[in-house]
Amino acid sequence: MKKIIYTVVTCISALFLGGCADTINIFPVENNTADQFYKTEFELKQAVMGIYARLGRNRTNTDFPTDFYLQCSEGRSDNWYSANIPNAQRDQCDLRYFQVTDATSLNETNYSRLYQIIKEANNLLVKATADYSRFRAEASFLRALAYFELVRAYGPQPIITTPITNEEAKHLSRQPITEVYAQIISDLEFAMNTLADFYTGEDAGRVGAVAARCLLGQVYITMAGYPLNDQTAYEKAEAVLSSIMDKVKTRLAPNYADIFDVNKENCYDLFSIQFASGGQNIGSSMAGYVTTSSGSSTCFPEWAYAGYSQQGQDFRVDSLLIKQMRVVGDLRLETCVASGYWNTVKHGYTANDSAKYYVERDILIKYLTKDNTNSTIKSWNDYPLNYPVLRVADAYLLYAEALVKNNKASQAKEWINVIRKRAGLTPLNTDPTIDDIMYERRCEFLGEGKRYFDLVRMGEATFVGTLKGFSNQYEHVTVLGANNPDKRDMLLPIPRTVRNIHTSWDQNYGY
């Protein structure tokens, strides 16, 4: 799929970005060039690949997983802390320090990109006839994913399901989140009832029905938590997830490290954002942000290619979590985190060498290609590893959570113990609790942008209490000048550029 998507991404991007200077660029709008497209199966396939590509680099230096799942989600959780005042990447640190505003550029970029996905999905869904049901189903899934991230991160949103004019866009209003979720559910039901379970070969990486059902299960689990607190959603989550568990089992990786092995991509996931190195502007930028450096120098040459540099930040993994995982011998730790690195290839192993060349820092390494001879990687944002949006452990742990909440905890034990066994942990002897599941989710998905949204759906008291304690632990307020997290940080602000157009829109609480 990588080859297919990125063969067309340049021409698709040019098609949809051309002539947009005078449009409201965060909303689907009319596009005269697009009116002449969508005529043949080849063009429709190009169009759907172009929607997938919006999740990648999108003709920018960074990709959506780096900008949204890492910086705006993982970076605001209790998994990741800032050790020093940065000399670069101020937006990332404003998010970590809970100082984001409606003028923060990264926040505006993410909001705009999600609506770009919706715009292009709407264009395809209007133009493609029922004969092209697979393309329509893929576009529906991607629109649902975009709306899901919007409603989780920004709250109420306008629901747009067809191309609209600039004038129509000006009169849009924010609709209740219940209505947004209804649209998401509708899109996912169409996708899961239309697509094949999985796609392989040249189509590996394209979304299938199992991924659509898994995302729908996640949607219901999210609806069951804050702010909707719809407890009936747990029953719906159990029903939709139970229908795929036998199929999901077939993609369980025998070893945790296999999930992040570039040579085993699209084997053990349900849906991943595709990347490839080689200097084609289709590589991942994640490796440039996940680890730690005080400047733009090469940070760990024993792992990475010679030109590797980072973005001037010093972010590290929570040391208390690492200690917990290490005490119980959690095998996931080795794949996720390193306790330090040599800053030169030429070194000995004496105490003097260690003092001079070894840097002790708990850094996130699961997205690195650990091979300093890799000649295909051409720059800091040219890493080849796909980003997993949905994988087997999502289905297992979401299903276990639904079972616990539906008073079937004894059945949930089977699913959580599979994850624990792969991690080298002893099985639970008692029925799992929600705390057990949240802890497994934290360890299993470390660095994958899920923890922040887990804290949100646990409610205001858990969210604020957890993050205040975490912030105090690393002296973010007293030493680094951060703000204390509070209720307002459960959502991001609607960007100022949007509210300059939609002057009647209320801003999210606290901004």
Please tell me about this protein's structure.
With 511 residues, this protein is mainly alpha-helical. The protein has a domain at 286-385. It is 46% helix and 6% strand. It has helices spanning 2-17, 32-35, 41-53, 64-73, 90-96, 105-127, 133-154, 166-170, 177-192, 209-224, 232-242, 245-249, 319-327, 332-336, 351-357, 392-405, 409-422, 434-444, 451-457, 460-473, 496-501; strands spanning 80-82, 269-273, 315-317, 337-342, 358-364, 387-391. The strands form 3 sheets. A two-stranded antiparallel ribbon has the order 1-3. The two termini are 41 Å apart.
Give me the secondary-structure topology.
Elements: H1 2-17, H2 32-35, H3 41-53, H4 64-73, E1 80-82, H5 90-96, H6 105-127, H7 133-154, H8 166-170, H9 177-192, H10 209-224, H11 232-242, H12 245-249, E2 269-273, E3 315-317, H13 319-327, H14 332-336, E4 337-342, H15 351-357, E5 358-364, E6 387-391, H16 392-405, H17 409-422, H18 434-444, H19 451-457, H20 460-473, H21 496-501
Antiparallel strand pairs: 1-3, 2-6, 4-5
Helix pairs in contact: 1-3, 3-6, 3-7, 4-6, 6-7, 7-9, 9-10, 10-11, 10-16, 11-16, 16-17, 16-18, 19-20
